[in-house]
Structures are given as structure tokens and as C-alpha cells.
Design a protein that fits this description.
Blueprint: H1 2-21, H2 26-43, H3 46-54, E1 62-70, E2 77-84, E3 87-92, E4 96-99, E5 105-108, E6 111-115, E7 119-126, E8 134-140, E9 145-149, H4 154-165
Antiparallel strand pairs: 1-2, 1-9, 2-3, 3-6, 4-5, 7-8, 8-9
């Protein structure tokens, strides 16, 4: 029992370290996590954030959520991964700043939403040169893939994501 608790503690600490290491600026990451924690408390939990950010139909039930990063061509973006009975969704922790062709600045949350029926498969991946770095690849039916990484609890996230997209 003590050995199992030790393993769980090691996985948790390793998850936190992996999560923080992905950020180019640790101070910004901590600030973002504090902001997100405040929002979670203010809005009443991840279920309410999920409903507010994605405006889904009645009957859609949230199966799980996880703090992680979404890999993009601009680099990893910190946020929350949501899996519900109808969608796999991601929303950034903080708004990203975009500029218009006219030079105006705007702030938007980076969001991704894929209907569960459009998810072909979920793969567990490890970095070949560093096996402790774990990723989750979500592949859609049109062969587009999303890469999630830096989970605080990788095994838990993988489990609810696989359960949510299973075709059973």
C-alpha cells in the first residue's frame, strides 16, 4: 500500500513538473493557473466553464476534464481538455492576443471542439528520447490530429478520453 502511494505521488509530482516545463515562462504559467483556479471557483467548477465556453445542446454530460497543453504550430497552449457525451473540447486558460489586418488587437480564447462521432481513435504516445514525456493523440475521421501533453494526471485523462470516444 505504501509503495502504491509512493508511485501515485511520483506520478503526480512528475505531472506537475511536466506541465510547468512546457511553458516558456513559468511566472506566466503560475499566473494563468491562479486565474483559472479563480474562474473555476467563481463559476462553480469545470462543468459550468464547459457549458459557458461551448454552449452545447441539452443532454450533453461532461465525463471529465483535465489541465493540459494543446500542441499548435505556434507552440503549446495551456488550457482545459473536456470530454463529454457529445464532444471532445479544449479551451485555453487565458485569452490569446490577435491582431487584425487593420492593426487592431483582440483577445480570444483558443478553442477546439470535435464531435465524439468524428473521433476515429485516441493514441497513447511517449517521447522516444524521453519516455517519461507522455502525449495523447486524438485523430479524427478526416485524418486530422490533435496532440495533448503536460497532463497533471496523464492516466486519468487518458482513461476518461478513451471512455468518452469509445464506440460501444
Amino acid at each position: 500500500m505504501i509503495r502504491e502511494l509512493g508511485r501515485k505521488g511520483y506520478r503526480f509530482v512528475n505531472g506537475i513538473l511536466e506541465h510547468v516545463k512546457l511553458s516558456p515562462n513559468i511566472a506566466k504559467t503560475v499566473k494563468g493557473k491562479l486565474w483559472l483556479g479563480t474562474k473555476l471557483v467563481q463559476l462553480g467548477g469545470s462543468e459550468k466553464i464547459f457549458r459557458k465556453m461551448f454552449n452545447l445542446r441539452q443532454g450533453d454530460k461532461l465525463l471529465g476534464s483535465a489541465h493540459c497543453y494543446l500542441s499548435t504550430t505556434a507552440g503549446p497552449i495551456a488550457g482545459l481538455l473536456f470530454v463529454s457525451t457529445h464532444v471532445v473540447a479544449f479551451c485555453s486558460d487565458r485569452p490569446i492576443i490577435l491582431s487584425s489586418p487593420q492593426g487592431e488587437l483582440g483577445r480570444l480564447f483558443y478553442k477546439v471542439m470535435v464531435p465524439v462521432k468524428k473521433v476515429e481513435r485516441v493514441h497513447q504516445r511517449n517521447n522516444i528520447s524521453n519516455p517519461s514525456k507522455k502525449y495523447i493523440q486524438v485523430v479524427t475521421v478526416d485524418d486530422f490530429d490533435f496532440w495533448f501533453m503536460g497532463f497533471l494526471n496523464y492516466e486519468k485523462a487518458l482513461k476518461f478520453l478513451q471512455k468518452g470516444v469509445s464506440k460501444d
